[in-house]
Write a structure and sequence with these properties.
By secondary structure, the chain is of the alpha/beta class. The protein has 19 helices and 26 strands. The protein folds into 4 domains: 89 residues, Roll (Ubiquitin-like (UB roll)), CATH 3.10.20; 142 residues, Alpha-Beta Plaits (2-Layer Sandwich); 236 residues, Rossmann fold; 110 residues, 3-Layer(aba) Sandwich (Rossmann fold), CATH 3.40.50. Bound molecules: iron/sulfur cluster (SF4) (2 copies) and FE2/S2 (inorganic) cluster.
Amino acid sequence: MITQVSETVSVTVDGRAVQVRPGTLVLDAATEAGVHIPIYCAHSKMDPVAVCRMCLVEIEKLPKLMPACATVVTPDMVIHTASEKVVKVREGVLEFLLENHPLDCPVCDRGGECDLQDFAFRYGPTTSRFPIVDKVHSDKAVKLSELIELDRERCILCWRCVRYYDEITGEQELVLDRRGVDTVIATFANRELTSAFQGNLPEVCPVGALTHRQYRFKARPWDLQRSSGVCPECSYGCNIHVDTRNFEVVRFASRDNPSVDDMWLCDRGRYSATSWNGGARISSSHIRKGGSVAVVPCSEALEQAAAAIARVTAKHGADAIGVLVSPRLTNEELWLAQLLGREVIGTQHVDVGAAFASGAQPGDSGLALEDIEACSDVVVVGTEPEAYSPVLTLRLFKAARKHGVRVRRVAWGNGESAGVLTREVLAGLADGRDGSPVRVGVVAAESDAGAARDLRDALLAKGHSASILSVVHGVNGRGARDLGLVDGGAPGYAGGQGHGNPGGTGSPVSRMTLVDQVLAGGLKGLLVLDGAGLPLAADVTAALAPRLRKLDFMLAIESVSGIFSDSASILIPGHAYFEKGGTVTSSEGRVQRIRPALPSSGDTPRELLLLQKLATLLGATWEQMDEIAVFRRLADRIPAYAAAGYGGRTRWMS
Ligand code: SF4
Ligand code: SF4
Ligand code: FES
């Protein structure tokens, strides 16, 4: 006999019928029905514990009120979230929570975005039976680390912060100390927090008990202007809200994208927010001749640049000119920069200046971040991927804890061969298994991409399913490779971009980058966009400066001072990352939009327009395009980008 298992369950929430999957929590069924249930201890990324009792609801045929956050629906369940009983209990819970609360909302950083404030207003009693003078006071402004401060009077003991460490990072740095009414949140053995992810705590805390020391008393939520962005610190692609006040970035807040960051940021990314303020911004266009520097209009600087390009091309050929770009530029800027270099100037030297970029291959972004959880095994080659993109560690921890994925970290470097690595991994896979095919993810830094490819191919040859995530440098490092911003390359890996490495396997090829060619004295002219964003080692920077001054000309479009602006014969003010709109592509190949969070600091046209004006001066007949029109053009030429659109992943034909 075949038993049919229903795929949905019918429930009614406050008279609204809704179909949900079996196993759904009452809380989620209510959300599905458009009914709000207040919660404190429940959190969408953590297991239910039902300790705060804020979400109690009445369920017909059950004798007691039930916690919506920990009760699973059953067929034809009838739920009431605003019955007399529920309203009374909620008022009681809030009255107790506020009994000893300091009521310091006017000076609390969370005032205006606090669930205690909001729920007290919406669901709380109009008066309290406890006199204000009887409040029990506790420690305020307890410094847990250089980054996080705890106010014990505001804590409602929801346990979220402790569970965050248990379930999300696995580090267990916070504990519930003491017993009963004396219970407080404390660090383990009174040690400072050391986690690289502690900046998530104030967002996990539903009230103002845990706050960012960097942001204390800086702004109220209604003072802030918020825009959607992507963290600029690495190529993981974490989604952020960029909160600004008075034309300065004051904080980054997480913007949950379950496919990418799962709502977590690392501290390096989160606390880089204020580094975008100030700095030695370049405010006017300059032309340098001999020892003198003249301030000129931007239009004149562009005309001079066009004349210099024509002069050098006529004398030495177009290949004497290089176009050097940073991996912080948007895809749209990269696209126009490579068109300008290759099709207007006619040089093949268009480059993102990163070692190993020339060996990039489309399959390097084959493993999606969320697919890590669907693998049976994940091999992380070396420590660089997690050191560079720390939120990857949280994804790996979740995969292991929640989905039983075997995460293996294998040492790499010091001359080991890819063959040794492969044998070790294959032996590990055979260990304790029946030999049936498994799905394996291989995560490696781009410098180890060759070993990762060898490993993938060996796994495929054994009948397993395997794919790679190669972690590149720069927030848009993947975009630069996809769009062919490598010397001698072409957009979309056309013609087997991996110079000398067309077979798709083997060691990555580290050809001379454009920076190497400048160092070797092989160029006469240079166009640089955002040179300050190039990942240059200190010794390279030191060696580069004198070589740059020997060029016949250098046009630098820079937002802040650095070696390129200091040596440029023609300098035009550029725009910072948060002054731009467009798209950036993360290591896993996700094409994500960024929007300007700040107005331009000066009146110079944005880089997209500067590139178009320069192309026009050089004889091109480009129509004027904004970033959306440019994205359409590049998507027309690269099908993987057309398929990805905004927010999707590129999928390359092998
Ligand atoms: S500090 Fe915040 S997150 Fe931690 S238990 Fe108290 S209220 Fe909850
Ligand atoms: S992992 Fe990278 S993208 Fe994500 S928050 Fe950290 S630095 Fe930013
Ligand atoms: S949110 Fe359900 S008991 Fe706390």
